[in-house]
Specification:
This protein has 74 residues and is α+β, with helices and mostly antiparallel strands. The chain is 38% helix and 24% strand. It has a 3-stranded antiparallel beta sheet with strand order 1-2-3. The longest helix has 11 residues, at 31-41.
C-alpha cells in the first residue's frame, strides 16, 4: 500500500444540504472535480500531502505540479 497521499479537508463545519453531500460522495476519488465543485459553491478547504510519512499543507500550484508529474516538492 502506498504511503503517499493527497487529501482535501473542508474548512470549519459547514451544514451542507443532502444534495451537496450526495454530489461530494459521488466525486470521491476525483480530486480535481471535487475542487472545482467546492469552488463553485464557494466552500473553503485545505489541501494536504503526505509523502514518506510527513504531512504538509500544500497550495494549488504544488498540487498541480504533483498531479502533472513535474516533481512538485513540499
Amino acid at each position: 500500500m502506498p504511503d503517499d497521499v493527497i487529501s482535501l479537508t473542508l474548512d470549519g463545519t459547514p451544514d451542507l444540504p443532502s444534495a451537496i453531500l450526495q454530489t461530494l460522495y459521488r466525486l470521491t476519488g476525483r480530486l480535481e472535480k471535487t475542487i472545482a465543485y467546492l469552488d463553485e459553491l464557494g466552500l473553503p478547504f485545505a489541501l494536504h500531502a503526505q509523502f514518506d510519512g510527513e504531512r504538509d499543507d500544500i497550495d494549488r500550484a504544488t498540487l498541480r505540479s504533483i498531479l502533472e508529474g513535474d516533481g512538485g516538492t513540499l
